[in-house]
Amino acid sequence: MKHNVMKLIEYTTITIIALCFLGPVIWMFMQSLKTPIDSISIPPKIFFSPTFRNYSSVLSNPAFFSSLKNSLIIAAVSATLTAIIGTPFGYALARFRFKGSKHLGFFILSTMILPPIVILIPLSRIYSALHILDTMLGLVFVHILMNLALVVWVMRSFFVGIPISIEEAARIDGCTHLQAFYKVVLPLASPGLAAVTILSFIFSWNDLIYALVLTSSEICTIPIFVSTEFIGFLSVRWGELSAASVLIVLPVIILLVLVRKHLTRGLSFGAVK
Amino acid sequence: MKLIKLISRKINEKTALPYFLTVPTAVILFALFIYPLVYLLVLVFGSHSFPYVHLDAFTYLNRPVFWYTVRITVIYFAGTLAGTVIIGFLCAYLLNRINKGSLVFNIIFILPLAMAPIAAARNWCMILNTLYGILNYIIGFLGIPPQEWLTSIHLAVFSVITVTVWRWTPLAILILYAGLKKLPRAPVEAAALDGASEWQILRYVTLPLLKPVLVVAMLLESIICFKEFDVIYGLTKGGPAEMTKTLVVRAFIDGYEFMNLENAAVIGVMLLIAGLVIAKLGHKILTQQS
């Protein structure tokens, strides 16, 4: 009897907390289906006749598509490049002790820990001297920096978990060390590589501050679009704002559920498996 | 492929390979991280590097506004860190105890992490609105009068902390839940056999065993609270009356909205020092973990 009461309390508590986390997401979805009048009615409308007008007006907005395209290109290119650049170093950190490896490991980690604004203050001046302010190239560079630590540390943890005897066997069979890395070890670590690339993609996709500082009129990314497009001088088009938010969040939810197995490891830099 | 074969034959030596693997990362690191940081220091300490220097940059540190910002940063940091870790542990502990439906809860807890922070913040603006926000409607049922969540100088910090906690607690849940699942069962069972109560088991068995994971969770949450910009920017932009302007937000607004890069750079140096301390600590913790 006492056991059952305990279970009931546990389920009730976690359900209430979960509703607090879920509530805002549901509310966003509901707002995206409301007419402009319904979305700011007092008291707020829980029951209303849904309309897809917000979605059709967002989807017929050319600015939405151009920023969608920009964000897709920047996120895909930077995530791929980050994986290509960071993975070998993760392997080097996992397998070798060489001069400067510890310092580099530390510097890589601090790129993730320093607030972006610290690096942006000097970088915006460097970028303007190089004439790559407000270009996709500039954002791709800085997103590589943003995600490099993630790739390096998580891949390091995956490589540490692969027994060294496997690559020794490959080398006895005639592979060079580098061949053993990309022919034997890398395929074994590929689930991790996929997960960490997807995470990099998501961080780049969601990034606001780098885009806010380094772009202005030429390149608009999705977070900038969401933050500026629907906010007028006197009113906010909440319905369309919510619809655009739902559209950009949906693919991320799907991606995160796909990498759910490696999510904890990825977000904790490989410290918790 | 041929190129890779050629290169791999050339650098078969054990001494050269690690450096070959390091080069791409090192190039990015020097070009985009170390060089800009040195440049930042030159900007601040080198004389007349700013064309519009009117006063010695570091007199900024003597102004009350700087220390006021530091105070808000500390309040925000402590509030979000405590909130995320405590609620995160509570959820992880409960998730670990229930056996049905934990997958559903898991997916629910991923949702705030998936939201683009700016979309989440704008959505919360709508929820917290004084006139037509749903939150004031809900607390109306409990007999509480409508509150100015984002525009009152007393409540704004609290609201901003709450939204940050909402966004980042799932991270703590994921990590602590993974840690709890991995704990050995034997000590808990032994304690239960010896007649320990649930609370005693939690306090004297589970928590000490979980300590390493708890440390990682606290480290990650403090990194995130220290850096957080998007949520505050999206909710209040530092207002009302600068009540929610943390150092990060002030550096951005001073530098890129008031175009006072000099002040922003001084704050940047302060953040750099604080960040390096956290990084040193984090490096130690993370290398011990794996």
Q: Could you characterize the architecture of this molecule?
A:
With 273 residues, chain A is an all-alpha fold. Chain A has one domain: MetI-like (MetI-like fold). Chain A has 14 helices and no strands. Chain B has 290 residues and is mainly α. Chain B contains twelve helices and no strands. The longest helix of chain B is centred in the first third of the chain and has 34 residues, at 64-97. Chain B is globular. Chains A and B meet through helix 1, helix 4, helix 5, helix 6 and helix 7 of A and helix 1, helix 2, helix 3, helix 4 and helix 5 of B.
Low-pLDDT segments of chain A = none
Specify the structural class of chain B.
mainly alpha
Class based on secondary structure composition and strand pairing of chain A: mainly alpha
Q: What oligomeric state do these chains adopt?
A: heterodimer
Strand content of chain A: under 5%
Ends distance of chain B: 33 Å
Termini of chain A, distance in Å?
Answer: 37 Å
Broad shape of chain A: globular
What's the number of helices of chain A? 14
Tally of distinct domains of chain A: 1
One letter per element, helices H and strands E, the order of chain B comes to: HHHHHHHHHHHH
Overall strand count of chain B: 0
Main β-sheet of chain A: number of strands, strand sense, barrel status?
none
**What is the H-and-E element order of chain A?**
HHHHHHHHHHHHHH
Q: Averaging pLDDT over every residue of chain B, what do you get?
A: 87
Q: Largest interface here, residues on each chain?
A: A-B, 101 and 108 residues
CATH homology superfamily of chain A: MetI-like
Cα radius of gyration of chain A in angstroms: 23 Å
How many strands in all of chain A? 0
**Apparent shape of chain B:** globular
**Proportion of residues in extended strands of chain B:** under 5%
